[in-house]
Amino acid sequence: xxxxxxxxxxxxxxxxxxxxxxxxxxxxxxxxxxxxxxxxxxxxxxxxxxxxxxxxxxxxxxxxxxxxxxxxxxxxxxxxxxxxxxxxxxxxxxxxxxxxxxxxxxxxxxxxxxxxxxxxxxxxxxxxxxxxxxxxxxxxxxxxxxxxxxxxxxxxxxxxxxxxxxxxxxxxxxxxxxxxxxxxxxxxxxxxxxxxxxxxxxxxxxxxxxxxxxxxxxxxxxxxxxxxxxxxxxxxxxxxxxxxxxxxxxxxxxxxxxxxxxxxxxxxxxxxxxxxxxxxxxxxxxxx
Length: 288
What we know:
It is a single chain. The longest helix is centred in the N-terminal third of the chain and has 53 residues, at 26-78. The protein is α+β, with helices and mostly antiparallel strands. It contains 4 helices and 14 strands. It folds into 2 domains: 58-92 and 207-285, no CATH class; 95-203, no CATH class. 23% of the residues are buried.
């Protein structure tokens, strides 16, 4: 081993300096941090914007579905009423008799007693107890006699009334509560109904368009229940008469001429530009 090689062996391996001995300067680090912050803010803003878009879209869809469901409910209930059932018809409200139960007369069992077979009942009618009444018609005539504010007195329900109804040819496989014996009939109509007559027990149903309790604008109310909102001024009802004419309100003498109810709503978009409205219209024909 030569002297030079021995010296290198004693000193150990030779360290080599990097080609670029400089690190990042403070200015470069600040620029990198600033660029990363701007990029993160842009990504966050994009994500928040997409979230707001999807939330608004979901709210809009829910609002439209709520309005459509409310209109379907209103149409189903108004369609059950006849012109004779309408009590008031104005631009901002519609009031009519709404059936709570429907029954058929099986027979008379006493001087003032009648046995009924109840074939239809509305359990969640939300109809106030302050206005109730009874209507009767023959099975072949759609004209009803009304006794507003009067209901027959229940006497019995169950097996006894069912025997009377089954003897008259009525089905016997319904719940016992559907077969009822009632009394006091002459107080309401002066005479007993005949076998096969149709009997309706009803309340008062009011549909109104007035200020909402939960949103800025108008709402549709079914009695005390708020169905949908918000709507703009001008939303309400119109009425088609038997001659095809259409009125914003109908006086008491002409209520029997109403053949259809037109519901007009101007739905307000809370996320749209000021004054953004979507018109919704539904024509409902009354029962003949």
